[in-house]
Amino acid sequence: MITLDKLTKIFDTPNGSITAADHISMEVPTGEICVLLGPSGCGKTTTLKMVNRIIPATSGRVLIHGEDTSQMNTVDLRRNIGYVIQQIGLFPNMTIEDNISVVPKLLGWSAEKYKKRALELLDLVALDPAIFLKRYPSELSGGQQQRVGVIRALAADPKVMLMDEPFGAIDPINREVIQDEFLKMQKELQKTILFVSHDIDEAVKMGDKIAIFREGKLEQYAAPDDLLAHPANDFIAGFVGNDRTLKRLQLVTAGEVMQQNPSMVTLDQPLDEALQLMESRDLEAVTVVNREQKPIGMVRREIAQVHRGSCRDHHDGLPTVIYQDDDLRSVVSRLYRVDASWLPVVDGEGYLQGVITQRGITHHVGATYRTQA
């Protein structure tokens, strides 16, 4: 969808020429989020602004669906590209409905069409139209205003979105909520997005690809897991942090790592059957499920070795369960919090799907490095 071909920007200053972006070449596939990342002054925002000609390029090209943006007229360019910045810029004298409708009105949409669009977009970011449609920006919190800023950029259904640190001014708790809502929205809309950030954690969470800049040059362009596992040089390694292996945990879900076809017993099974199962599979414990195949406890090997009777009489409760969609970062946190080496994994309705172990997580994370060796 987006191709940057040797894109370069040189600023003339009283102290001489400064190369803010130096022959940047990369491709962003349709429907993906590419995060431009790097320290202040590295060229990421300059590169972003050259895409929609807020800053003219010194040389090189920007192509959208193969079309050179320098050959587009301004109206077509603005229609195809939505733009979101940290300083939201909502018009204070307009209602939220009118703010969202600014571009559709300029494009000649009918009142029925742009009003319907405003309703749809407010729903999309969990802002009740009945409450927010006729409010003014001053009546919204900072986080709510930022959501409106995002959907205003989506109002005319652009092919491409440019986002310049859109959540940077929001407090950490609300930022995470808005990031999650935006990713849910992106799953449905599949926009092609260039997203500027200075935060590696945000980049890993939001990006399908990450482009790291330094002093106007593109140092590495890769998927988050590849970037964290294989930094191209010492600068990249230092920038992403010494905990980069731990950052990889948020890129993988429990469902991807769990052991399927888990060992389990029912409440009415004899303890000696549970012991046989654990001995045959070298397990220290086995999951107890009810008639619906939902985990309700565990039988420990050490208990089954010294007692007789049924699993009903000798099982322990589960401290917690893991959901298939939980990322490994939260899984590890829960394992440590309840001092467990394994936990059952369930689907959204609570049915047992597998088990996840500390050893399995370690094996998964280390597989990349074993392959490299």
Automatic annotation (TrEMBL):
Signal peptide per UniProt: none
InterPro entries, A to Z: AAA+_ATPase, ABC_transporter-like_ATP-bd, ABC_transporter-like_CS, CBS_dom, CBS_dom_sf, Gly-betaine_transp_ATP-bd, P-loop_NTPase
Residue span(s) of domain ABC transporter: 2-240
Domain of life of the native organism: Bacteria
Pfam families in the cross-refs: ABC_tran, CBS
Gene3D superfamilies referenced in this protein's UniProt entry, alphabetically: CBS-domain (3.10.580.10), P-loop containing nucleotide triphosphate hydrolases (3.40.50.300)
Keyword Zinc-finger appears in the UniProt entry: no
Record's keyword annotation contains ATP-binding: yes
Keyword line: ATP-binding, CBS domain, Cell inner membrane, Cell membrane, Membrane, Nucleotide-binding, Repeat, Transport
Main location: membrane
Transmembrane annotation, as ranges: none
CBS domain residues: 258-317
Membrane topology: Peripheral membrane protein
Cell compartment(s), UniProt: Cell inner membrane
SUPFAM superfamilies per record: CBS-domain pair, P-loop containing nucleoside triphosphate hydrolases
Catalytic activity line of the entry: a quaternary ammonium(out) + ATP + H2O = a quaternary ammonium(in) + ADP + phosphate + H(+)
GO function term, MF aspect, one: ATP binding
UniProt-listed Enzyme Commission number(s): 7.6.2.9
Record-linked PANTHER family: OSMOPROTECTANT IMPORT ATP-BINDING PROTEIN OSMV
UniProt subunit comment: The complex is probably composed of two ATP-binding proteins, two transmembrane proteins and a solute-binding protein.
Family, as annotated: Belongs to the ABC transporter superfamily.
Protein name: Quaternary amine transport ATP-binding protein
Source organism phylogeny: Bacteria, Pseudomonadati, Pseudomonadota, Gammaproteobacteria, Oceanospirillales
